[in-house]
Write a sequence for this structure.
């Protein structure tokens, strides 16, 4: 019965050949859902292992860094405890800060699953995406004004998303067709931005758009002076081969990341005065960060997280940075991972619920009481007065609800 | 306002979904199930992205994740992440082979031990080398060869006389 190996392989290929073929139906893969669920799982790890680290260092560190062990560890994390690290130093609450915060679900025209993907500085405009049941149809994009749907639109590309909207209701986003393409949505009309392949990340009230040009993985940071202008490439420092601009404030300061060859990206600023600045690497307990991952810029404030790597662990510490003084301040314990910053310097972060941090005072925003099961909350915007926050919940079975928190 | 890492992830996933769906479909034989496997794979990938986006052969890494998720599911007999209710969709297009023929073969393959199933699919449907399969399954090339032989023997035994009604030489 011994056959030559090649002959045996050919027989096996022939035997199994009836099973060959591609799936014929449309993909139900939900990349945004995978990211939301992935973020939820990431956060679960931080809280579970972060608790231990905070407990150990509570006597020495005011805002203990949250750490988690290296990926691929053999045992799965235990269920997330229903508490966040408590502030390690008690400070009398200053008078400023949000009060009486209430949560509401944004309307979705009957769609069960929907996301908020951005909001404007006035707190009036929000953008998002609706998910038709079954996952085979295209996902309409949606604009809300004052908590009501003002338009729903279908784009031609795949996996479209609106990433930001300004106070005039002009939104920007990107879609894949099949390459990624940046677009602007204004007065009920969508248009592709000039410059070919690229992505739009943010727009300010003056209509300046920032993002990247080229394929996402290898793109370069870019700025469109207006929604009808050709893009300008933002300069990359020596040693960086790619990067992206992720946010812009009203003065025109642009925040982004640059990616040195063979490494992960780190924070970079293209300032309105024409100068550029690699964001400095903050220190915690005498250790200098490996990278800084910025999240948002507003009125000269930047928030983000410093990354501390050792051979087999990665930990984070959360910071607010001021452009004028080129200095960081570590956020108090319990502030969560910073997501956005308001013009008044208030920071909104992601913990087990969204948290608004004003100085040393944390205000935890309420959970949506209608939602069942364990929920995580992902934050997308905060208004300039710090009183309106948007985001969405991520619950069991990749369920998402678009939410708006209003405070006084 | 995605950060750089998210953008890289999106670009990567958009470029690989078709290939991952195909492999998942060949492994499990069901489109809806294949989408669930890919959904879990890209979710896990996102969790780990900041740590692995710089690895040298990320495609191999991700396909390994997919195969391990498939095997893990077989072991546990249930699945954690389900996408929304599957809609009606056309039957897969397979030229030259009848529906019944595929159903018989798929049913037989599903009775072969899971690791042997994975070896047979990866080697003979995904056209992967013995070395590649060994890396995906974290075992030696010798083990891949023996699992191939055991898997084929088991498959032929389960098929019995029905093997003669299938196309191709045996």
């Amino acid at each position: 019965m011994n056959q030559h190996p090649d002959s045996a392989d050919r027989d096996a290929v022939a035997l199994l050949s009836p099973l060959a073929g591609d799936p014929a139906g449309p993909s139900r893969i939900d990349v945004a859902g995978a990211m939301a669920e992935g973020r939820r799982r990431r956060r679960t790890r931080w809280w579970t292992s972060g608790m231990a680290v905070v407990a150990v260092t509570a006597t020495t560190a005011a805002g203990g860094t949250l750490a988690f062990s290296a990926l691929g560890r053999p045992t799965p994390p235990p269920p997330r405890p229903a508490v966040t690290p408590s502030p390690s130093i008690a400070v009398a609450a200053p008078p400023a800060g949000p009060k009486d915060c209430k949560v509401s679900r944004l309307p979705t025209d009957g769609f069960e699953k929907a996301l908020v993907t951005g909001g404007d500085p006035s707190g009036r405009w929000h953008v998002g995406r609706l998910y038709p049941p079954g996952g085979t149809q295209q996902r309409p994009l949606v604009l809300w004004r004052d908590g009501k749907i003002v338009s729903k639109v279908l784009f031609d590309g795949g996996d479209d998303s609106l990433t930001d909207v300004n106070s005039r209701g002009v939104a920007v986003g990107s879609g894949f067709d099949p390459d990624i393409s940046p677009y602007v949505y204004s007065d009920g009309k969508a248009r592709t931005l000039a410059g070919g392949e690229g992505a739009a990340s943010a727009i300010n009230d003056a209509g300046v758009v920032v993002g990247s040009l080229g394929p996402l993985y290898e793109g370069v940071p870019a700025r469109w002076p207006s929604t009808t202008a050709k893009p300008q490439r933002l300069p990359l420092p020596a040693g960086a081969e790619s990067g992206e601009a992720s946010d812009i404030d009203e003065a025109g300061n642009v925040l982004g990341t640059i990616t040195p060859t063979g490494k992960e990206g780190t924070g970079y600023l293209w300032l309105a005065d024409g100068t550029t600045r690699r964001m400095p690497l903050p220190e915690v307990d005498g250790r200098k960060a490996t990278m800084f991952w910025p999240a948002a810029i507003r009125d000269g404030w930047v928030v983000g997280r410093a990354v501390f790597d050792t051979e087999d662990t990665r930990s984070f510490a959360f910071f607010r940075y001021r452009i004028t003084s080129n200095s960081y301040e570590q956020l108090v314990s319990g502030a969560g991972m910073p997501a956005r910053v308001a013009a008044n310097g208030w920071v909104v972060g992601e913990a087990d619920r969204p948290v608004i941090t004003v100085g040393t005072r944390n205000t935890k925003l309420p959970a949506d009481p209608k939602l069942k099961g364990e929920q995580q909350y992902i934050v997308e915007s905060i208004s300039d007065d710090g009183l309106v926050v948007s985001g969405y919940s991520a619950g069991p079975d990749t369920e998402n609800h678009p939410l708006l928190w209003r405070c006084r | 306002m995605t950060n750089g890492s998210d953008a890289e992830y999106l670009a990567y996933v958009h470029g690989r979904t078709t290939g991952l769906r195909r492999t998942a479909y060949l492994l499990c034989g069901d489109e809806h199930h294949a989408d669930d496997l890919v959904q879990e794979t890209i979710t896990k990938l996102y969790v780990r992205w900041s740590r692995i986006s710089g690895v040298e052969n990320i495609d191999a890494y991700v396909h390994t994740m997919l195969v391990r998720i498939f095997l893990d599911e077989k072991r546990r007999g249930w699945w954690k992440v389900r996408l929304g209710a599957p809609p009606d969709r056309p039957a897969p297009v397979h030229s030259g082979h009848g529906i019944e023929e595929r159903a018989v073969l798929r049913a037989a393959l599903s009775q072969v031990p899971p690791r042997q199933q994975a070896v047979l699919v990866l080697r003979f449907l995904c056209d992967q080398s013995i070395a590649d399969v060994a890396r995906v399954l974290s075992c030696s090339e010798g083990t891949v060869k023996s699992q191939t032989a055991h898997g084929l023997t088991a498959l032929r035994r389960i098929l019995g006389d029905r093997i003669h009604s299938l196309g191709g030489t045996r």
